[in-house]
Amino acid sequence: DPLHPGILHFQINPKTGVILTQLPIDREAVDTFRLTVVATDQALPESSRLSAEKLVTVIVEDANDNAPMFVSMNAAILPTPQRTSYHGRDGMQVMTVFARDLDSSTNGLVTYDLVTGNTDLFRLHRSTGVVTLRRYIPDPEPKYQISVKATDEAVQSDRKSTDAYITVIALGSGPGPVFEDDEAAGSVYENEPPGTSVLTVTASLRDQAQAEIEYYVTNVTGEGGRQADRLFDVDPRLGIVSTAEVLDREAGPDWYDVEIYAIVLNSATPHTGQTKIRVKVLDKNDSPPSFQEMPHEYSVSEDLPAGQVVATLRASDPDTPGTLSYATA
């Protein structure tokens, strides 16, 4: 692999031919190395020496060095009474929690457990991560919180796990908080670290200046409405929307729609408001140009006059605007 040359990670004893590691190896970064080993006789003079080459493939086996990481939303909407199943073993689905583990095989197989919080109301399917209602809730509170755990199924080593807190919001039937800007938009550069601020949302409840309001991200979608990971968070009290992951404009869409709910805490009955903001991912010049697949050799006549076309090469750059210039070196 030209981006991960084996010569940096391995060395060979010139006398014994034993191949040794010389740098730590990360299977999640590169799982196969192909080394060209050259054996040369020691004849004299040196110009008379002969050699042979052998391609050696080194496959990196997985170690359970990664814990599961939750990428699903940490807030969801409680199904309304009209949609709640009164019967049926599984009840009404609330959400699906999902954690990604970069390890392979059983080291990367994830199961889920409901740890604490309203376990009498919610059920978590161990293998699918689907959260369902155990029973109908006639008079819901403004919000419910549960703690879930994702654990890998490692066999040959200690298992790794990660906890997450999930907030389930009950929709209000009456007037709810109103957002100051119902079509807010922001932008953020790609490759910025998680926690980079994008914008701030603010909502208030009419005629109730003392209303305590919290904010939650319940959904993130990309172009075409495609579901995305939890790429954005919002500070529950301050309303500051920030990145939850490093964004890559070339790997994902140019913009995301982020659904945010505002809820009133100091109320006996649920009061909710909802808005959707659009976040544009700005480009950085982080991707080199690449040539299209074309022949690497061309033939010309020795008497070809100056200015005649020999070949036309094409390259592209995923960054914007992607304008290229060409030169020989």
From TrEMBL:
Report whether Lipid metabolism shows up as a keyword of the record: no
**Alphabetical UniProt keywords:** Calcium, Cell adhesion, Membrane, Repeat, Transmembrane, Transmembrane helix
Q: Name one GO biological process term.
A: homophilic cell adhesion via plasma membrane adhesion molecules
Give start and end of each Cadherin domain.
Answer: 10-70, 91-179, 180-291
Write down the SMART domains for this protein, in alphabetical order: CA
Can the keyword Zinc be found in this entry's annotation? Answer: no
Subcellular location as annotated? Membrane
Its protein name is Cadherin domain-containing protein
